Amino acid sequence: MTTTTTPPETAREAPPETRASDNAVVKGAGRVVDFVDQRITASNWLKRNIRKVFPDHWSFLLGEIALFSLILIILSGVFLTLWFKPSMAHITYEGAYIPLRGVGLSEAYASTLELSFEVRGGLLMRQVHHWATLVFIAAMSAHMLRIFFTGAFRKPRELNWLVGLSLLVLGITNGFTGYSLPDDLLSGTGLRIIEGGMLAIPVVGTYLSFFIFGGEYPGDDIISRLYPIHILLVPGLILALVALHLMLLWYQKHTQYPGAGKSDRNVVGYPFFPVYVAKAGGFQFIVWGFIFLMAATIQINPVWFWGPYDPSQVTAGTQPDWYVGFLDGALRVMPAWGIDILGHELALSVLIPAVILPGLILTPLALYPWIEQKVTGDTREHHVLDRPRNMPVRTGLGVGFIVFYILLWIAGGNDFFATILEIPVNWISRFLQFSIILGPPLAFWVTKRICLGLQRRDREKVLHGRESGIIVVSPDGEFSERHQPLEHGDAYALTAHDRIEPIEPGPATDASGVPNPAYKKERRRARLSRFYFGDVIQKPTREEMEQAHHNGHGELESGAHEEHPGDQVTTR
Amino acid sequence: MSTQDEDAKRLTGELEKTPADHPEQAGEVERQAPDGDPIPDPGLHDPGPRLTEIDTRAAKRAERQVAGMFTLASVFIVASIVAYVIFGIDGGEEGVDIGDVQVSNFALGITLGMAMLLIGVGAVQWARALMTSPEFAEKRKPLRSSDDVRESALASFDTGAAETGFGRRKMIRNSLLGALALLPLPAIVLLRDLGPTPGNAKEHTVWAEGVRLLTDVTFEPIRAADLEIGQLVNVMPATYEELPDHGPERINERAKSPVMLIRMLPEEINAAAGRENWHVDGIVAYSKICTHVGCPISLYERTTHHMLCPCHQSTFDLANNGEVIFGPATRALPQLPIAVDSEGFLVAQSDFTEPVGPSYWEREA
């Protein structure tokens, strides 16, 4: 092996007094490796992997937060199962919480009260479990946005994009099933809304509801049915997919941001052992520590305060967990549409937000890597991340989606906003009905313009350097600002992305006038390509760089031609 | 002037760019700028040694920091056990004191949280300040297998497939596919007993002719004179009180039968045809279960007779047959026809004349 493929073990060696070989711990580890190696050839794998390189960037921590909060969810969840009784059997409460003594309620609710009031650390673990879930889903969402905006989903990582999306869906599902288990007033209200959504499904909806609830709503089966789903089925799927997610990540090696020395053919960073064992291992405890501090200081879901579930009661102004908010918001602002199909009732006002909308969000998200591949026609491997500004349309689409999501989320708290803004809730709903349609395209357009502006600035910086703030007067009285050239590495990072130009369709007919059968398809693709890349500001070419330097200062200020992005391609 | 020239040359790639003092990185700079790319790759930048590598005092300081954090973590761990023991929550016969629970929760959470935080920050600081690992580059191999490997893999598959005769022996193939296609059916059939079929269960409640309206919670019968104008009373049918505590029937009726009784001036009621005698002196009875997704409705505005569902803000006009005036609900609130029995108590004239609660497919539109 050459020096380029092996990590430079000799590059900066540890001082001799701390050489590993005489250390007792290392000797012990050696014996373990020896034992395992003689059975499964472990050294071969270790040799290749123990010094595996991982790039460093704060945004790569988002996925780690998700992973570590998941581990904490599982540990705290196991603690909770030791006391929780998933039963809707009706009992008379005789526990430690005086206000509910003598009240008839379910065993599930009573055991949740027991966990909170009769088990030391039980309330803490309940709050850790709940907070860790909110952090888990938030971290997964932020991680997914990072992946989207930097193009990390591109080949060869499309599969891991799908695995990640499935994890997000499973995480939300399990969060909701867990929310329903304590059988308090809020959890029951959540289930009631889910059941209403189920009923809106044509043909099979009523049957689905009767099978899931064991008869009419709410019955006395649902909690013992959700329990194995919550603690076994979905967590099992999540763990399996997390394992797959990490194996793919490990095998394909991590992506990296553009910069000096970084390319699609290498990965630059620090060795897994010891740097990431210490950093990621430490970060796990930091995440756990933060969640424990939250659980210690911020109360979450005080179930004793809501009381046991009673289908005829509801408390105003309560909100679901944050990740369900957008669906609840969609239910709130959907116009009251309903149609009659051959004497059957189809409640579109429920069906669309509760059933169709999640599908409308998830399908394009799942397919996006392939959609973009279709537009670019790019089948190469990508390991260097995009800076979001260099893909203005993708970034615009992402921000448009975020705006759509946030507006739905605001709708989920429209009563809350009505209270703090002191305006009628109806106005907020009406306003949101319009802005949910108009907001995302506007956000797309604004984001795209901002990206193009940032690209223009990058181009300026590469061509003429950054503004120094120093004004120079030439002998003939001309004022100009001196520009300082960029560091070589910085200039490289600004120009390391691909120069992508829109595809042109071939001619409609060939030379002898025979129509090209694929012309319509080509034209469609060209149109899409123009939508994505038609007004991208290209990085300067080598000739433009030279020209900029030959022309000197006079040229620096007369950058009028920069206003016509179309020119730049033709100068090549 | 000369430095500017040099910078210009550097940017256009005329200058040599190999960092000669870092031989392990020199091999990485083999990448040439592709055609048209203005800036060649300058190669990995070596930030040089850490402060702790050249300054032993800085190294000692960092070592003390890290060890200090780990030690402090131990202190917090012990403190958490002490907190567990001394902050009890058992209130005995008096029941629990929420304050005790909060103190225990706070003490346990802070000590454990701080312990973990310190272990974590200590480990990260150790890696950042003291671990001597340099940044380096590892080559990526293309993920695609080489052509001959792909070909031989495919050939192996072809050989295996040929050995089974899968393509040739159509009878075996089709019968196997048929059996496998049928296999999921029992999995679905076995789930059949999860619940009964709906039947007409959703069309009925325990309301019926002559069933008294009882105040919710206290289950007292109600006389028309008990209600003042503008007053709202939640009621349940007398038949509900007789349902057993155990089993699903009671809670299922709780989700279907709740009714709101509101009194308004009789002339304010704009009754639809056929509903003129459904009220008793301005007392109207409406289902409490929202027709949107089934939340119990609870917010009444007595001057407008508007009833708002707190879940999704569907708003119903109770003076006008429960029509929807705002929000996502598509159907009016079902009204319960009421009358007065021989003893002067309010009773239902019949069950609801339509299913209560959310819309569903089998419901007649």
The major β-sheet of chain B equals:
4 strands, antiparallel
CA radius of gyration of chain B is 39 Å
Q: Rg of chain A to the nearest angstrom?
A: 30 Å
Structural class of chain A: mainly alpha
The overall number of domains of chain A is 3
Annotated CATH topology of one domain in chain B: Rieske Iron-sulfur Protein
Largest sheet, strands/sense/barrel of chain A:
2 strands, antiparallel
Question: Could you explain the architecture of this structure?
Answer:
The complex is a heterodimer of chains A (572) and B (365). With 572 residues, chain A is mainly alpha-helical. Chain A folds into 3 domains: 18-49, no CATH class; 54-85 and 92-335, Cytochrome Bc1 Complex, Chain C (Up-down Bundle), CATH 1.20.810; 457-506 and 513-558, no CATH class. Chain A has 20 helices and 8 strands. In chain A, the strands form 4 sheets. Chain A has a two-stranded antiparallel sheet with strand order 1-4. In chain A, strands 2-3 form a two-stranded antiparallel ribbon. In chain A, strand 7 and strand 8 (479-484) form a beta hairpin. The longest helix of chain B has 33 residues, at 98-130. Chain B contains 10 helices and 11 strands. Chain B is an alpha+beta fold and 365 residues long. Strand 4 (266-271) of chain A pairs antiparallel with strand 1 of chain B, so a sheet runs across the interface.
